Amino acid sequence: MLELNAKQIQMGRRAPDKQAALELLADSLVGEGLVAPGYLAGMQDREVQGSTYLGQGIAIPHGTPETRDQVYRTGVRLIQFPEGVDWGDGQTVYLAIAIAARSDEHLRLLQLLTRALGEGDLSQALRAAEHPEAIVALLQGAPQALLLDSQLIGLNVAAEDFDELLWRGAQLLKRAACVESGFIASLARSEPLPLGNGLWWLHGEQAVLRPGLAFVTPAQPLQLNGQPLTGLFCLASLGEAPRQLLERLCDLLIAGQGDSLSQASSTRGVLEALGGEVPADWPALRIALANAHGLHARPAKVLTEVAQAFAGEVRVRLAGEAGPGVSVKSLSKLLGLGARRGQELEFSAEPDIAGDALPALEAAVLAGLGETVEPLPAAGLASAAGAPLDQVAEVPAPTPGQRIQAVAAAPGIAIGPALVRVAPSFDYPQQGQGAAAERQRLRQALEQVGVDIQGLIETTGQDNIREIFVTHQAMLRDPALHEDFDARLAEGASAEAAWHGAVTAAAQQLEGLHDELLAERAADLRDIGRRVLGRLCGVEAPREPSEPYILVMDEVAPSDVASLNRQRVAGVLTARGGATAHSAIIARTLGIPAVVGAGETVLALAQGTELLLDGDHGLVRVAPDAPTLQQARREREVALQRRERAHAERLRPAVTGDGHGVEVAANIGSGGDTAEAVELGAEGVGLLRTELVFMDLAQAPDQATQEAAYRQVLDALDGRPLVVRTLDVGGDKPLAYWPLPEECNPFLGVRGIRLSLQRPDMLETQLRALLAAADGRPLRIMFPMVGTVEEWRAARDLTLRLRKEIPVNDLQLGVMVEVPSAALLAPVLAREVDFFSIGTNDLTQYCLAIDRDHPTLSAQADGLHPAVLRLIEMTVEAAHAHGKWVGVCGELAGDMLAVPLLVGLGVDELSVSPRTIALVKARVRELDYRHSQALARQALMLESAAAVRALVGEAL
Ligand code: PEP
Ligand code: MG
User: Fold this and answer.
1) Beta carbon of 731 within 6 Å of any ligand 1 atom
2) pLDDT tens digits for 297-325?
3) CB atoms closer than 10 angstroms to residue 881
4) Relative to the CA of 838, which ligand 1 atom is closest?
5) Is 359 exposed, middle or buried (0-12, 13-18, 19+ CB in 10 A)?
6) pLDDT range class, residue 418, cuts 50, 70, 90
7) Which family does the entry's similarity section mention (predicted)?
8) What is the pLDDT of residue 456?
9) One of 106, 296, 472, 865 is an active-site residue; which one?
10) Is the pLDDT of residue 192 over 70?
């Protein structure tokens, strides 16, 4: 990761020439262990190929692609040369930034620098700076310009009152990526300021990513504090106040021209009055960048030279991004785009020169901008690794009768036609042929989609599905959607761009409300939006079967699963993914049978192919014959009966036939789930993931808020034990109000207890809230991701210190065993802890070195691997030797094949998703403890997870 800080800077050095300066820079990189000495030759070669002078007295020397293997670690070192160094071409360098980067990470640095490069004359300030902090401030400190453009103006928006208008303004800022969740709350807290003429001003400072000003006017007359409300400014404030804009606004109001804003009928008029970015109606062209390392200094320079040959203005932005773009003539602005290989650049040029300039730019980009480039794969095909499988080279479809063994992700048997959902690529122009023509095109597309949906309504035999389609039809008629669409058309957008923009904005508004039901509506809206877009672009979306179907996808994101309609989706089959991916966890929670990691061939299935999916065994049968289907239906019936029987006995304890008891508890994410878990047979909560209390908030919840959340769980448990995991964020699970440096390898970075110990104040507040909530009830607290004894002791000591202030009778403190080192140290830890809870999801990923969310490898991250079982065995043995108990709270605890082994290994508690509790209890009751112990001993001696699964499968 390339970031700038004062420690990297050497001040006041001297170099007689560029060669000497490069040597000093290379020495400093070598001295810091960033590169091998051979990197200097690469830096010299690079200067020969083209000067690394950037502008403003700054150069950014770095090696060539050939010397990348000389880089040990990514980093930068800066040297100030107050007397200047001649960098050739008449340029003098006062600050050289030597970059050691193995790939295109330096683009990030260039982005950081561009703000500084765009401001006034920096070179003299860099030369005169007396300490490194001053240099950092100069490079990073330039205030960001206020965003005020057409996307931030909403005229005549539907709003019933001030709050709604405020919300619309905040949404515009969010859509423009000026703010994130949490901003609206800070805006709502600020005092509205009347400006006269019915205009009001509000500003918010929290959750602001870049400064921006939105202006909204209501469609109907509104009042605020007894005064008219005809227009509202919402400022996302960051850094200095936008003085220029405020002065302009004051002038306007003093001159009695406030009405031009409060009664504005065009976005352009508002922008002209306020001095915002007026949208240019210029010819445009899109082209994908093929340069291996993106638009770095050398190709960017070539591009500026092409643009500079034209007298008028030429702009560029990343396709799909809002705003007017940046001048192609400015090297620093181009670098600020941070464009990477495969991204599309959208060029636009003043009409007078567009005819010549756009083709010239296109030709230059196609020619590689001075570099030899590998052509990009043809449109629609994937580029490098990590591209969605649904778009990779063609693979043969599975044949009828074929049996595919994949990973069991959520139990149950599902039968139905396949709906293969691959992301269609919609290719369309951004600019339209005039509002009337574009509106007519949308009308036609809507009519066609309306007919399609009507057909589905008429053919479906199920009332609940019919209702969904009726809702879709209502969505197509939504006046707010059409209003937004029209506004976008008025700005010159094509029907496709306007429709896509309007649907996305509406869906984001719904999603922003964090309401489960509204999130489902948002998914419906996006769904219907895609259908219409498909019609507009002539791309047919797969017809949704009228009966419940099996959704086949490349990989399902947790949000996809969460938004699945359980009435329509009978099962989920994915090409990639593993059983502990969060999407699989959600599928289990929702009770949708799922098989994951089946390989890319499933994406080649013909739409409507009958599939039989066995989520217990990770099996898929393609177009099974009638006897197989019959058999599956019987099995499904048996499974259903088994589930019903287990449910009827859910409150009975889980005791094996020979009298060995195991506690079965629930994994929950929020207090509201507790009562249901108890109703489903939970004997306690074995894992309360406290992240939900912290996420989606603008700031860390205070002690009182947390205490209330924890009390809710304890109240619902009514004396049953609660095992709480302290906050487990960081790495892949960030918190908005706790900004952390980006990490190359978040799973091996600052997460879990490592992060909590860096901010003990947060941990202390959480612990205080937990202790205060206990009120005599049994409370167990455990710490996630403990890898060392010191981490455990630090967390324990803090808790015990607080316990002196807030006494709790029944308190146990434990360690989550998620890192192999914790399992290996179990004999030491067991002397001190009260219990262990094994997080097999993480333990498996760290033991097998497979990222649990890895798109292709995670299917192999099987917790039944003998190596993982051995770690579990060691933990249990150590704990029992000291009279301590052990739980398993990872997904493995709910895997029916794993239950006999975990019981046989002596695990005392299994904590699983609430829906699985009854089945786990029933499974334990079927077991014989001695037999399970023998089975576990056998499993430990096997060579692979597959062998273990086969062993247990046979023993069933
Ligand atoms: C685990 O790692 O097994 C666990 C229970 O924690 P999470 O899945 O929340 O990381
Ligand atoms: Mg974990």
Assistant:
1) no
2) 778 888 888 998 888 888 888 775 656 67
3) 12
4) 3
5) exposed
6) very high
7) Belongs to the PEP-utilizing enzyme family.
8) 73
9) 296
10) yes
Report the atom number in ligand 1 closest to the C-alpha of 580: 8
Ligand 1 nearest-atom number relative to CA 837: 5
Q: Which atom of ligand 1 is nearest to the CA of 689?
A: 9
Q: Give the tens place of pLDDT for each residue, 657-710.
A: 999 999 999 999 878 789 999 999 999 999 999 987 887 566 789 999 999 999
Closest residue CA from atom 9 of ligand 1: 689
Could you confirm whether 889 is annotated as catalytic?
Answer: yes
Do 426 and 539 form a contact (C-beta atoms < 8 A)?
Answer: yes
- Between residues 873 and 582, which one has the greater pLDDT? 873
The H or E element containing residue 476 is helix 463-477
Contact present, 617 and 403 (Cβ < 8 Å): no
Identify the band that residue 477 occupies on the pLDDT scale cut at 50, 70 and 90: confident
Name residue, tokens 């110990």. Answer: 757
Strands (E), 591-660: 594-596, 610-614, 619-622, 654-655
| pLDDT confidence bin for 269, thresholds 50/70/90 | confident
Q: Which of 178, 234, 847, 889 is catalytic?
A: 889
Say how far apart CA 537 and CA 445 lie, in whole Å: 9
CA distances 125 to 18, 96, 855, Å, are 21, 14, 48
Decide if 131 is catalytic: no
- State how far the Cα of 800 lies from the Cα of 808, in Å rounded to an integer: 10
CA of 667 to the centre of ligand 1 (A): 10
Q: Is the CB of 889 under 6 A from ligand 1?
A: yes
Is 744 an annotated catalytic residue?
Answer: no
Burial of 764 (0-12, 13-18, 19+ CB in 10 A): middle
Q: Structure tokens of 177?
A: 């990526």
Half-sphere exposure of 254 (CA within 13 A, CB side): 6
Strand partners, 910: 664, 888
3-state secondary structure of 405: strand
Comparing C-alpha atoms, which of 649, 690, 586 is closest to residue 917?
649
Helices (H), 649-752: 674-679, 691-694, 703-717
User: Out of 472, 582, 660, 865, which one is annotated catalytic?
Assistant: 582
Q: Which residues contact 556 (CB under 8 A, 6 or more apart)?
A: 572, 574, 577, 583, 587, 596
DSSP β-bridge partners for residue 811: 779
Global confidence as pTM: 0.51
Domains and CATH numbers, the chain: 6-140 (3.40.930.10), 150-274 (3.40.930.10), 284-376 (3.30.1340.10), 403-419+543-646 (3.50.30.10), 435-537 (1.10.274.10), 649-955 (3.20.20.60)
Residue 581: what pLDDT? 59
**Residues, the chain, total?**
956
The yes-or-no verdict on residue 295 having pLDDT over 90 is: no
pLDDT at 389: 32
Contact between 58 and 95 (Cβ < 8 Å): yes
The Cβ-side half-sphere exposure at 605, using a 13 Å CA radius, reads 34
Active-site pick, 62, 203, 293, 500: 62
**The pair of three-digit structure tokens given for residue 649, joined into one six-digit string:** 């006995």
For 542-567, how does the pLDDT look when each residue is reduced to its tens digit (9 = 90+)?
677 778 899 998 876 544 554 567 77
Going by alpha carbons, the residue nearest to atom 4 of ligand 1 is 839
What mean pLDDT value characterizes the chain? Answer: 84
Task: Please tell me if the CB atom of residue 689 comes closer than 6 angstroms to any atom of ligand 1.
Answer: yes
Looking at residue 554, the DSSP 8-state letter turns out to be: S
When pLDDT is cut at 50, 70 and 90, the band that residue 383 belongs to is: very low
Is residue 304 within 8 A of residue 298, CB to CB? The reply is: no
Decide if pLDDT at 379 tops 50: no
Indicate whether 756 pLDDT > 80.
Answer: yes
58-62, 145-149, 945-949, range with greatest mean pLDDT = 945-949
- Distance in angstroms between the alpha carbons of the first and the last residue of the chain: 51
